[in-house]
Design goal:
Elements (H helix, E strand, L loop, with lengths): L4 E2 L2 H12 L2 E5 L3 H12 L3 E6 L4 H8 L5 E2 H6 L3 E4 L6 H11 L5 E4 L3 H4 L11 E6 L3 H9 L6 E7 L4 H14 L7 E3 L2 H16 L2 H15 L4 H10 L1 H17 L4 H14 L2 H15 L2 H11 L3 H12 L2 H10 L6
Parallel strand pairs: 2-3, 2-5, 3-4, 5-6, 6-7, 8-9
Antiparallel strand pairs: 1-9, 7-8
Helix pairs in contact: 1-8, 2-7, 9-14, 10-11, 11-17
This protein binds NADP nicotinamide-adenine-dinucleotide phosphate (NAP).
Amino acid sequence: MLEVEIVSNSQVVVGAELLATARVAVIGYGNQGRSHALNLRDSGVCIEVGGRNGSPALANAHSDGFRPLSSELAVADADLVIVALPDEVHGALCPMLLGAMKPSGVIGFLHGFSVHFGMVAVAKNRGVVLVAPKGPGTALRERFLQGIGIPSLLAVHQGGDDPGRAEALALGWAHGIGSARAGIVRTTFRDEAETDLFGEQAVLCGGLCELIKAAYETLVDAGYPPLLAYTECCHEVKQIADLICDRGMAGMGSAISNTARFGGAASGERLIDSSVRTRMREVLADIQSGAFAARMVSDTEAGSPRLHAARSLAADHPMEESGRAVRALLPWLK
Ligand SMILES: NC(=O)c1ccc[n+]([C@@H]2O[C@H](COP(=O)([O-])OP(=O)(O)OC[C@H]3O[C@@H](n4cnc5c(N)ncnc54)[C@H](OP(=O)(O)O)[C@@H]3O)[C@@H](O)[C@H]2O)c1
């Protein structure tokens, strides 16, 4: 049984009609901002793009046919301001955006992080909404151009003076980026922020990456060729992930050999045992308490030493060399 509400087409239509006559500002033109601005413009929405002086990203906006403005100018007349800036700078930059917005302007986020964990405070009379696409900006643009879309989560943190208008602007925004073609799911800032962070940390960008690295190192330490180790433990992840996305976990299980299924079931449970589940609960508690968010913000304030160290550690790992060798065999990969 579904315990979430999927937005109906009739609700989306109301939003799309409102957005067609609204002015929208997209602040930041990076991974997400570019795709939101282009998809909304292609959907007929009036868009201003804003950012900081000398921003390399705004040069891309210029090449895409926008006439980028300073953030203050871009938001001044906007009915909806889309904050497409890195989460860790919201606390420092949103007061300036909010101060430059007209009183009826609604502020929109792509992740609940900064609002839910209290880095951004907004006066009660202003609408605060969320449209969080469940995928990277590149996929959002590519799927839109293919006539399909990626799903988005939608939430209203506060409706402000006109709750119906704030929600309709969010619905129109989700529709304009193509998410109505894939599904718009109603949620809250809290649920979006906490599940998104947990998914990233436990699986997508944390647990999975460490699992791959540990398996690669196990094979190489045992004397197997690095190229084989990389292919088996890393490169093939995409084929299995595609099967899981297309058919579900059980469907993936029936698309692989009996040997793979038999061995995977036994060894998977041996590896991901109750001690891993205990630590997963600890990771979740760290997120829910706000401790993770506080560490992220203090790292940013100190010049991001932990973030830079994590990036360098990943770039310097020997498996990167093996990855380049595997990809060189597959020239069709971008
Ligand atoms: N990336 C994803 O796949 C994804 C998916 C779902 C939701 N989100 C959410 O989308 C939002 C934006 O993330 P993103 O990955 O798109 O961000 P991003 O690409 O890292 O950065 C976006 C923009 O912010 C500008 N910027 C960076 N630091 C700045 C600063 N201190 N002052 C002013 N401008 C600054 C950058 O331009 P310049 O450096 O050129 O100025 C860039 O245009 C976040 O809330 C994130 O959680 C991201």
